[in-house]
Amino acid sequence: MSSTRARPPVAAPVAQKGRGTVWRIQTRFDDLTRQEADDGWGGLEDDHQRIEDAALPATVIVEEQVRSILSRNNSPDVGFDLSINPYRGCEHGCIYCYARPTHSYLGLSPGLDFETHIVGKVNAAERLRQALSKPGYRPVALNIGSVTDAYQPAERQLRITRALIEVLAEFRHPFSIITKSAGILRDIDLLAPLAAQGLVAVYLSVTTLDPALARILEPRAASPHRRLEAMAALAQAGIPVGVSVSPVIPFLNEPDIERIVAAAATAGASTGFSIPLRLPWEVAPLFEQWLGSYFPERTSRVMARLRDMRGGKVNDARFGHRMRGEGIWAEMMRQRFAAACRRHGLKQQRMPLDDTHFQPTVASNKGQGAPGSTSQMALF
Q1: For the chain, is the Cβ count within 10 Å smaller at the N or the C terminus?
Q2: Per-residue pLDDT at 361
Q3: Separate counts of helices (H) and strands (E) for the chain
Q4: Comparing C-alpha atoms, which of 226, 140, 224 is closest to residue 184?
Q5: DSSP 165
Q6: Which CATH number among 3.40.50.920, 3.40.109.10, 3.40.50.1440, 3.20.20.70 corresponds to the domain 43-378?
């Protein structure tokens, strides 16, 4: 048995086209740590060549019946109280994704399995309707897509996110969505009427304007120009839209902070926020291996700067620190982002939503209706 930190296999292959990683890194819950070693017979390099030559691993979609769909947030670092994640895992394959370690709870790898083994919560809408119908329920800040992208490719087939929006519309419950997919445009017919009542806000994540970098950083997400086009279409439809310039990776996409903000403002964004990269649990070795494969000349500088912003570590899970970082470099990035937002007229406050329209329709039919509050909720 060993508790040593997971390391990539000897001569680990570079991530293949369309995948963030091909490394099935072990989970932190594994008792045994395995490491490949060359025995001198010359077979290891041949094995890796076969891995690189193999067909791309196919995506497997598993349908799941869940007991509940609302997850409560206890962190003061994000401005929503409840979240809905229609899927487990995400086919976009973003190498930096902080949600990768959640696959460990399924006994699956946060590496390749996270982006190829997707679980769809097919009864999510039913469970949401039940939750919102409970006597005494009051609307609170709710976000869709905090640890998975609600508009990843599986949504085209399963349409779970659309069903959830239909339930939220039925109850007139305010909510926000964060995504890096142009697939959200499919649901403009639902979102636009809700936006007219102050019930929805959308945040598009734009990490880079460089399509070549996006292709390896976020291999199955929409290209940067498609995200900006989606932003413009949402804004034109009257749907309030913001930009998330997150995560910011030193020496990689960090030089483009100002250009991203400018492009988002031109596309119609009215607000913005930015979060420096954090590498919890298995994400750290995955990201470092990816970085060494694609940007070996920058690896040491990037990792050193990340530690400078995280108190000597690559992740700081403390409330009040994990979304901000600390030290001079983190502060400089915050100041640059704030200056860019001021220059282009973007607010850094989250878009307020109105909870006074809430209608517990199912509950009221049973004579158990609950009045909505009269406050405004600023999401995130």
Answers
A1: N
A2: 64
A3: 13, 12
A4: 226
A5: H
A6: 3.20.20.70
- Measured in residues, the chain has a length of 380
Q: Which of 215, 214, 158 is nearest to 186 (CA)?
A: 158
Residue 332 structure tokens: 């400089």
Question: Which tokens hold the place of 234?
Answer: 């949402």
Read off the pLDDT of residues 187-235 as tens digits, 9 standing for 90 and up: 999 999 999 999 999 999 999 999 999 999 999 999 999 999 999 999 9
Please give the pLDDT value at position 6: 56
- CB distance 218 to 19 below 8 Å: no
Tell me the C-alpha distance between 23 and 289, whole Å: 9
Rg of the chain over Cα atoms, rounded to whole angstroms, equals 21
Provide the token pair at 48: 């890796």
What is the spatial distance between Cα 90 and Cα 153, in angstroms, rounded to a whole number? 9
User: What contacts 364, CB < 8 A, 6 or more positions away?
Assistant: none
Render pLDDT for 351-364 as a digit per residue (tens, 0 to 9).
Answer: 999 999 999 865 44
Structure tokens at 241: 């839209």
| pLDDT tens track for 241-294 | 999 999 999 999 999 999 999 999 999 999 999 999 999 999 999 999 999 999
Based on the number of CB atoms within 10 Å of its own CB, is 308 exposed (0-12), middle (13-18) or buried (19 or more)? middle
In the block, tokens 């959640």 appear at: 102
How far lies 313's CA from each of 206, 281, 287, 290, in Å?
Answer: 26, 12, 14, 18
Determine contact, residues 15/52, Cβ cutoff 8 Å.
Answer: no
Strand 241-248 to 271-276 pairing: parallel
Q: What is the largest CA-CA distance in the chain?
A: 77
Mean pLDDT over each residue of the chain, to the nearest integer: 87
Show Cβ contacts of residue 149 under 8 Å, excluding neighbours closer than 6 positions: 87, 90, 92, 179, 180, 181, 221
287: phi then psi, degrees, rounded to nearest 5: -65, -40
pLDDT on residue 77: 77
In whole angstroms, what is the distance from residue 334 CA to residue 323 CA? 11
